[in-house]
C-alpha cells in the first residue's frame, strides 16, 4: 500500500513514522506547504519526498493522510474526494461549522471513504468503558466526568488559528462522550477563564474551561480542561452508573498525587504530551485506516461524527460568550 501524507509538522512527522512501521504500508510519500520541511522528514525517516500536494495526489497513491494546518483540511479533503482516494484527516474537518457542513455533504455524496482522526476511539480504556455502558453492567449512567489537561500551553501562533479551546481541545472529549455513551448532547452551559499568558485573551480564547452537558437520556456530563497542568498531561473519563462506575486513564501515569496518608498510588511517571498518552491508540487508528483502504473495515469515525462533535464545541463557545444555556438544536443541525 502506497500512502501519501501532507503536513510534516509535529503530528505529521509522527503519523509518517507510524505509517512507515505498519505491515500493510509499503511506501509513504511526504509533502508539506514548506517543501524543505517535508524533505527533512522524508530523509530522516527514509521515506519518499514530493514537492507538493498535487504531485502526491497524482503519484499513484492508494490512500491520503492529511496532517496539514486546519485551514487546509477542507480543501485537501475536496481534492482527495475528487481524485477518488480514500482519506484520513486529522480533526477538525474545517475551521467553522458552515465549511464543515459543506465538506460533510461533499463526502456523503461520494463513495470515497474519509476517516477523521479522533484517536481516543482507539484507546483500549475508552473502548472498555463503551463496552461496559453498552452491556448494561454499570446500570443507567447518571454522571460522566471528563477532562483534558495539557501539561503546558501551545505557542501563540498555534492559538491564532486553533479555533478556540472548545473546538481544539475539549472537542476530543465531546467526540469520545458520544462514542462511549452512544447518546447525543441536547444542551450545554459553558464557561472559561484566562489565568496564564495574555495571548489567549488577545485571540478571544481561554486557557481553562468547563462545561455541563445534558445528554438525550438526561445523563449529565461535566467536561473540563486547561492549558496549564504542570503535573503532566492528564486525560481521563469517569463513568458513574447506578450499578457501578469505571474510570479511563486512571493508572500509574495519572498526573495526580493523593492527599491521604500512606497512599502511594499513582506512583509512575506522568505523561507529558498527548502523543505519549495515546501512542498505542494512534497506531491502532492508522492500522484501522489501512483496513478502510483495503475495503475490510467501515470508516470508524466519519465526517458526520466530526460534525456532531464540532456542533457541541460551537454550542459551548456560544454559551461561554453569552453566559447562557445553549440548545444543540440552535447549532446548525
From TrEMBL:
* Every GFO/IDH/MocA-like oxidoreductase domain range: 126-246
Q: Which GO terms describe its molecular function?
A: nucleotide binding; oxidoreductase activity
Keyword annotations from UniProtKB, A to Z: Oxidoreductase
Q: Indicate whether Oxidoreductase appears among the record's keywords.
A: yes
Tell me which residues make up the Gfo/Idh/MocA-like oxidoreductase N-terminal domain: 1-118
Q: Which domain of life is it from?
A: Bacteria
Q: Which family does it belong to?
A: Belongs to the Gfo/Idh/MocA family.
| Name used for this protein in its record | Myo-inositol 2-dehydrogenase/D-chiro-inositol 1-dehydrogenase
- Organism per entry: Kribbella voronezhensis
